[in-house]
## 1
Amino acid sequence: MKIKVLGPGCKKCVTLEQATKKAVAELAIDAEVTKIEDMVQILSYGVMSTPALVIDEKVVMSGKVASISEIKEYIQKA
Amino acid sequence: MIKSIQLAKKNQLIWALLLLPVWYVLYINLQNFSDFIIDNLFHLTKGSHLTETLRFFIFETPKVLLLLVLVVFGVGILRSYFSPEKTRKALAGKSTFVGNIMAAILGIVTPFCSCSAIPLFLGFVEAGVPLGVTFSFLIAAPMVNEIALILLIGLFGWKTAVIYTLTGLIIAILAGWLIGVLKLEKYVQDWVFEVKTGQSDLDATKITFSKRIKVGLETVKDIVGKIWIYIVAGVAIGAAAHGYVPEDFMANLMGKSAWYSVPLSILIGIPMYSNAAGIIPIVSVLIEKGASLGTSLAFMMSVIGLSLPEIIILKKVLKMPLILAFVGIVGFGILCVGFIFNFIY
């Protein structure tokens, strides 16, 4: 599973990245978490409010910092 | 199982409704409460500098925070019906002027954080939202918002709040319209038009009402958690000035007889960066000490609406002439607001 955190590097984006890594660790799944800071790439997902969460190339959330339990839900649904 | 979930949701709603009268009782008793603490509990001498400073602080801080919680909660629910994606769709291909008006109004209700100004700008331009219309949105979004509105109602009364909101909207509409008429598209960085934005089918606005209440509560936690410190600091500075600074102290510097006070306070306001939460309590004291309404409004708009950090962020997508046009036009609009209100009042 490939998880991407989209965000230009503001505080919220860092918080979301950390929460996502925690969620992955707590679920003990094999997933790669990367952070995308390049604006052109962020826009290629059609995202206008950062931070956003992309799981296997699909945008599942944008515009807020999701809690760890919310992120877990997104991962399990994907 | 399903029944118990429905019951739980209903309970949530009832709790939320029960909190409203509690809020009201607290709010209307604040003056008595603060007087009680100052006069009966601490037995402070009435009218001394320290007493009046403390009275102001103990009364204003909970008042503004209570207002903030209520309105942010309401706006959080209202905002859950809007998203930048939806707004973009509504504005794409709109003619100028009508588009400018819509953009400025949508700027108030669409969730917006200045750190996503760039993706939002790119997303709008790429979807065919005219440049001027995009600017109307970008000017209105930070300047006219619920926090400014609450603080203005709380500290100045609803009339000033309405004046601020309307003039803020008019500046956003006219400035965006003018940028559109001047055809400044060539001063957008070239790479902007080459960006291809993808389509996301995510629609965050289709959720149940109980979810919206949850969103409202989360917004309160998020926003109040972030800005309460600015409000307390702002009110504290305001309280100190209320108690210690002599009346009419600001009359010479920021009063209406000094014509240069309006442009001067705009120039001072640009490099100052603060959100509405920090600056409004301070401005309320400036007015109390003799600053005129027009000058104070201009100062406030300049601090909130024109900020150096935002200009630096926009530099990524705009060339210098367009940035200067943006600052110049908005600055001129604020200048007019300042002069008009100094003239009327």
## 2
Amino acid sequence: MRRLAGRVLFALLLAVIALYTVFPFYWAIVSSLKSGSALFTMEMFPAQPAWDNYAAVFRERPFGRNIANSVLVAGSVVAVSLFLGVTAAFALGRVAFRGRGMLLAAILAVSMFPQVAVLSGLFELIRWLGLYNNLLSLVFSYLIFTLPFTVWVLTTFMREMPRELEEAAMMDGATPWIVLRRVFLPLMGPAMATTGLLAFIAAWNEFLFALTFTLTDEMRTVPVAIALISGASSFELPWGRIMAASVIVTVPLILLVMVFQRRIVAGLMAGAVKG
Amino acid sequence: MVAPAAPGLSGLERERRRAAWLFLLPMVVAVVLVAGWPLGRTIMFSMTDARLDDTAAPAFVGLANYNLLIRDPDWWNAVRNTVVFALVSVTIETLLGLIIALALNERMRGRGLLRAAMLIPWAIPTVVSAQMWGWMLHDQVGVVNEALLALGLIARPLAFTADPDLALWAVVAVDVWKTTPFMALLILAALQLLPDEIYEAAEIDGLGPVGRFFRLTLPLIRPALMVAVIFRALDALRVFDLMYVLTGNSAATASMSVYARQHLVDFQDVGFGSAAATGLFLVIAVATVLLLTLGRVRLGATENGR
């Protein structure tokens, strides 16, 4: 009898956990499918789903453009971070040189930087480079949080590769560059996919730099566009539209995360716990 | 890591080291450009009267900005908000994360599905989760008010995000929702590394489930737990998006990041804003050192351990 009660309580606990994590997103989906005064009802399953919020998001604002901006920025940030990260990880993980520990510690310290602390210095640099209100300013500034993470995780993976691999190639007269490209790059595939994915999500979600370094609606990335959707007054916020936009940008992310969930957890472990 | 070079390898080894620096150079240049230089400039700006709308060369004013900063009650309010937010949210996230991780560590059907569901809040952009919760916590038509009214827990709807007494707790609640799953997954990963044998031994010794948790599980996962807590705490101290979107520039919830950006961008006061930003940087630097010492975490452990 006590066992049964325990099992029922445990099942209840799991149900509460599941409801707590999933309900807010479910409610956003439901709300995005209600239009007009239906939005203010507590209907849990919209009997007649209305899609006009979704159409309106693209009709009333440059939301398609905002999505393209986010894809472009996040994609470029991932490409640049992986290139810089894997070359650096090769040096940090495979070659013993003085100051290596110091360098790794300095890189870790950068990942603790509050973004606000570099805001005015970066703003000056970006204006000087003529990149204000240009997506390149975001590709550049996002390196501050993607790069330390990428270097750190790729270095831990690089270190675990067997030494014999490169010795054989070196004996054959291969240069370090060839060793990296021909020997390590193929083996680093899974690690690079994981770190790339995490960097992509971080860049996709970034808000502070995107809000500060872009000015016009056409240059906004998705988070800024969603944050700045507004109505005539706070009472007239177009909540249906906001929820539709939120669902549009979140569904691909959730699918990505579901497909790669094992890798993501492993990557987070390598980044946070091994650190 | 690299054994003393065999006689034939020394030439190669020297070439390797030269190459290593070449490989490192692009990354180091990028980090200096994007982090080192801007931080240095921010600190320099903090000692000038630079303004965003004025391109004339700024004048050096010494520590005047800092002097103003420590006299500004709004700054101390922002410091208090940030510290309360970080302390409360990280504590709740750790406790809830532990409970969820222990529950998910039991063998059962549907565990994979539940674990996947846990990643949803983590993957959702902070801005989106702030908007979602802003809608759920709406003072007139929000589903949370509706549910609390229906359960008879409140007599009239609460203005969660507008009421100064409630707004900071609303922000904490959203942060807890968004980051507890992350905590739970990290703790779960640590739990799954524990060998079953120690629990079998504990069973023979007659330890109950509570004793097992405090005497065995907790000490064993402590290192992983501490690192997760430290990362979360440092992240919480620089919080910006959540407050900015959920409650705007409201003084009731303004964090140090919100305060600094407001002065820097909205009031165009680069000198004073930079002083506030530098203040935040110092607070985080001190917190990092404190947490690392108190948590007895050796960051060099992996570096030397291999």
